[in-house]
Design goal:
Number of strands: 0
Order of helices and strands: HH
Largest sheet: none
Helix content: over 70%
Number of helices: 2
Strand content: under 5%
Amino acid sequence: MDQRGTGDSVKQKALILTICIIGIVAVSYGMARDNNVIFVIGIVFVIAGYLLIRRRIKEHIRERS
């Protein structure tokens, strides 16, 4: 198993996790307090997190092929 870049991988995972958590909290807050602006910002964060996860999965699939 190749161990190069594991530090970057952990940092990238932490970044994705942070983005997703911020998005989930913002969406929840926006729904609870009926604040549309915070809700939309949360949706943007959740979509960004999803796209980052999707990109990592695609890279992983390409490496295995």
